[in-house]
Amino acid sequence: MNLSGRVLRILPRVQLFPVRGLLDKLPIPDSIIGEVSAPKNVKKMEPEKEPKCVTVYRYDPESCQDPYLQEYEIDPQDIGLKVLDLLFFIKNSIDPTLTFRRSCREGICGACAMNINGTNRLACITQTPPGRMIIYPLPHMYVIKDLVVDMTQFYRQYKEIDPWLMRCAEDELGKRQLLQSIRDREKLDGGFECILCACCATSCPSYWWHGGSEKEDFLGPAALLQAYRWIIDSRDQKHCERLQKINDKFKLYRCHTIMNCAKACPKALNPGKAIALLKLMLTENVKKDVPDIDNPPLEEAEAVKKTAKK
Predict the structure, then answer these.
(1) What is the pLDDT of residues 138-158, one digit of tens each?
(2) Are the beta carbons of 137 and 115 closer than 8 angstroms?
């Protein structure tokens, strides 16, 4: 592609991205190592002076005590910027019995999902809010201990949508690279980024009501988002079978488009839109696009290679 063609591709995107408005707000590096000064037009948050009151849900199955809420008073200077830093301070300095999941601390693994001030969030990327704070485990999940919930049902539903490439010739999987065009790859944006944190599923009222029974099993927004991701993948050849597998009055159609899932997703994904597109595909109002690159069966591909060598 020549230079003029590249410019024409970039121009429409520039109009959608307010660069000038952002440049005034973004900090400018003072040196080549990335040190920056605080922007002049951004108000600094004044640090809290009074002790911070944090209320945490507590439950220990090995004790006879019912679940309860425990309050901690913390000096704001002792905690970090994120909620996970606050929980680490409580566990290391105040109460070592406090239990919670965590791993990457970068918003990638989804382990530290919990309900913070009434909203499902990842503790590692959620800034500590000012004032009082209350932390619960993810709602409508069986609690193992404190902020740790049982994810067995959630992962079972994820497994049910077959989250892997399916080809007509299953024996060819893993033996060669399946090609995909840039356009087909871009169709997967908004689906593959899901980290299975369950923030969306546990914020969905339909999932609360119908997500825990095998007879009335609504798969939930996370599993259905992944189902859509594999169905539209140009390398997958079993999209019809996948659609029929979720064509059930409970598995798919219990979604009432409440859109709590899109609001709660820490990766800014939209499972509600994916579910709506699945319904359209089942009613044949939307069809899967023909792949830009055809990946022939393994035997045909090898025959073409041999012919090319000759």
Answers:
(1) 999 999 999 999 999 999 999
(2) yes
